[in-house]
Amino acid sequence: MEIICKNCHHVYKGHYCGNCGQPAATHKINAHFLWHDIQHGLLHFDKGITYSLKQLFTRPGHSVRKFIEGKRVKHFKPLSLVVVLATLYGVLYHYYHINTFPDAKDGKMDYSEFNEWMAMHFSWVTIGTIPLYTIGTYTVFKKQGYNFFEFFVLNTFKASQRLFVQILTFPILLYLNGTPHIHKFSNATYLIGLILIFWTNIQFFNKISKTKAFFLSILSHLIFLTCFCIVIGIILAILGKLPN
């Protein structure tokens, strides 16, 4: 039976148009169609985001290694996952006017303006730190047989881990918003992030001992902190915001 494609008007036989690839059966647009579209097109909840997050908190290093080796169908794309999570966190941060510098009194820095800028650009800031993490990882683990871009994917997934923890613990952040105790909370989430980084690395680099992977992870993070401080220093110098 010949079918006329509703998209490009090509005449074909079978279940899919040989010209544009559109399926022969198109569903009526209704509430079910829109919900299905949200699941599969926007967030891919059925097997994308939920699957990736589950893997990142049950067997993070193993799942990322398998992803790099080619087992990718069930995973949400790593950069897309970071963007979705970072955007959600940035919206929450902006909507609830989170103030992480309640005691700051530096005359050169408008911390209220800084908080607002962070909220509006949180996705880009998060993505911007991934290459810095990757420099550290590549420098100390490059003998393990992975290239810079594979390490970038590893650190992208680790960024998603940390973001999801921040989203889950956001009610605590909101409760402490504007109080001196918010610094303790920030330190706690930073520590949790470090634990996740070390746990993931120890699983991912399974060809070396756990002890070696742990100490190399510490060195990798120190390199990241050095790169991060240099970049922040350059940005503040350009903006004329360096403290005296």
- Specify the biggest β-sheet: 2 strands, antiparallel
Helical stretch tally: 10
Total count of domains: 2
Strand content: under 5%
Specify the structural class: mainly alpha
Query: What is the residue-averaged pLDDT?
Result: 86
Order of helices and strands: EEHHHHHHHHHH
According to DSSP, the number of beta strands is: 2
* Share of residues in helices: 55-70%
Strand order of the largest sheet: 1-2
Termini Cα gap: 79 Å
Gyration radius (Cα, Å) is 22 Å
Low-confidence stretches: none
Estimate the global geometry from the Cα principal axes: globular
Give descriptors for this structure.
globular; two-stranded antiparallel sheet; mainly alpha; 244 residues; 2 domains; 67% helix; 10 helices
Account of the 3D structure:
This protein is an all-alpha fold. The chain folds into two domains: 1-42, no CATH class; 44-239, no CATH class. 67% of the residues lie in helices and 2% in strands. A two-stranded antiparallel sheet has the order 1-2. Strand 1 and strand 2 form a beta hairpin. Helix 6 (122-141) packs across helix 7 and helix 6 packs across helix 10 (210-239). The chain is globular. The N and C termini lie far apart (79 Å). The mean pLDDT is 86.
Please describe the topology of this protein.
Layout: E1 3-4, E2 11-12, H1 31-42, H2 45-56, H3 60-69, H4 78-95, H5 111-120, H6 122-141, H7 148-168, H8 170-176, H9 182-204, H10 210-239
Antiparallel strand pairs: 1-2
Helix pairs in contact: 3-7, 3-9, 4-5, 4-6, 4-7, 6-7, 6-10, 7-9, 9-10
Summarize the structure.
The chain has 244 residues and is mainly α. Helix content is 67%, strand content 2%.
